[in-house]
Amino acid sequence: MAVSSAEYLENIARGYVVQALKLERQGEYGKAAKYYRKASSVLRKLVQLYPDMGLVHVYKEWIVSYERRAKELEAMDREGLRIGGGDNSQQVASEVENMIVKEKSGVTFDDIADLEEAKEAIKEAIIYPTRRPDLFPLGWPKGILLFGPPGCGKTLLAAAVANEIDGYFIEVDSASIMSKWLGEAEKKVSAIFRKARELAATGKPVIIFMDEVDSLLGHFSNEVGGEVRVRNQFLKEMDGLNSKGNNREFVYVIAATNKPWRLDIGFIRRFQKRIYVPLPNKEARIKLFKLFTRKIRLAPDVDFEELARRTEGYTGHDIQQIVIRAHLRTVKELFQRTGGKGDARPVTMQDFLEAIEVIRPSVAPGVLSAYESWYEKYKAV
Fold first, then answer.
1. Spatial contact of 220 and 50, defined as CB atoms under 8 Å apart
2. What CA–CA distance (Å, rounded) separates 281 from 88?
3. CB contact set of 282 (below 8 Å; sequence gap of 6+)
4. pLDDT for 1 beyond 50
5. All domains of the chain, ordered by start, with CATH?
6. Which residue from 194, 270, 261 is spatially nearest to 232, judged by alpha carbons?
7. What's the angle, vertex CA 255, arms to CA 254 and CA 261, rounded to 5?
8. Between residues 221 and 201, which one has the greater pLDDT?
């Protein structure tokens, strides 16, 4: 199989990093620094040649890391100091530990306006099997894909599930998975699933939540070896979760994406539940306005139904920003009038209408047809 130019460059950089780590372990800090700089130089060329590559932002982070490490090693070489080490196994374990959300948000399904179909699908896939596994002799879905426009509640849904089942919540993204050490990323994927199994063995279910999963596991025209290996390792781990007879392991993967069309079929078919999280309808927008205004004073003229009518095509995040802007208008007036003393006046209907004039819908109408088309092709609720 032919190797692409991008993969060829990554392999060169990988070789330099391997050599740098070897020299670092041997205490040859000056020589190790030179190899880190060589790796950085190669990655700069890779980014320059392939600026549209899926993980270009990760390569840029690697460049910064290698340059920083080179400076540290040069200082160590001059002054005889030790700053860290070359063995990253403990670092990987520590990073995975940091992905576990220690303080949950407290959000529940009741705090999420509408999305009833999505809630029901999640209950069937996660909540019911977790509470009564004996009712599911044929097994249950371990992978759930949430897709739809940004700002419509995908992350909120995932957080709510962890609270509903009183489980652990491991939150990961492409930056946390793609290690700055070339070749370590797939090890980190394996470490995440291993940690999830350890936690599940204590009797509590575990949610692995992967936001913007397309940036990590999507399919791009210019792929390099690192991306392919990470995706293959992830698919291998998912196969382990979905294997026959694995009905006593309460580890679930919830992946969210705004670009489902970037995912290849091998990834898609491992997620038995594929849930479309659409823009909120009128009833949901009314609920959103009520939810977001619970903690602020409102004037009697505020009409939630009229506000919902005027925000057709807005996401939940857009509506939140409208509420924030309307409220800040009253706070600004208070400071201008009294220097911040006393209470702000109630938020009026006019405050909301002026905020709507400034904040426009963040999702273009044409994009919605792409989501609906993809949903018709791959729906599995």
1. no
2. 48
3. 308, 309, 312
4. no
5. 5-87 (1.20.58.80), 97-279+369-378 (3.40.50.300), 282-362 (1.10.8.60)
6. 270
7. 145
8. 201
